[in-house]
Amino acid sequence: MNSKKLYESKWELEYISGPRIAFQGLYPDKKPQITFNKDSQKVEGNNSCNGYSASYTLDGESISFGEPTPTTMMFCGQGEQVFLNTIKKVNKFSIDTEGKLNLMINDVSMMRFKKTE
After folding, report:
1. Cα–Cα distances in Å, from 85 out to 8, 40, 58, 68?
2. In the predicted model, what is the mean pLDDT of the chain?
3. Cβ neighbourhood burial of 32 (10 Å; 0-12, 13-18, 19+)
């Protein structure tokens, strides 16, 4: 049931674990977004500056992402690398009671997204 909700909207990052820089400092202008395409088994979006796409594998609540490939090549500061490095480590997902998408490493939420549409 949760996997069906992945495809229902575009997701916008509202929290990321790890960096010592405040979230607003990492993403001052534009927040990263992700969209899941069930047919192509790819995610697409932007990492706050450049577009990207990556394959993904879903098995129950386990998820893994392939190497994100950029679709544009602007230099964007630290936020982009924090996003790309974190998403590669994710191995699990959940959608919480508030309808937010959590991408996790085991049971620790590393990234939290809200619906944008």
Report:
1. 25, 23, 19, 9
2. 90
3. buried
The pTM of this model reads 0.90
Q: What gap in Å lies between CA 86 and CA 77, rounded to an integer?
A: 15
Residue with tokens 């969209």: 35
Highest mean pLDDT among 20-24, 62-66, 68-72: 62-66
- Per-residue pLDDT, 71: 64
- Chain segment 73-83, per-residue pLDDT in tens: 677 778 888 99
- Extended strands (E) in 1-117: 11-16, 33-37, 42-46, 51-59, 62-65, 69-70, 92-95, 101-105, 108-115
What do you get for the CA distance between the two ends of the chain, in Å?
A: 19
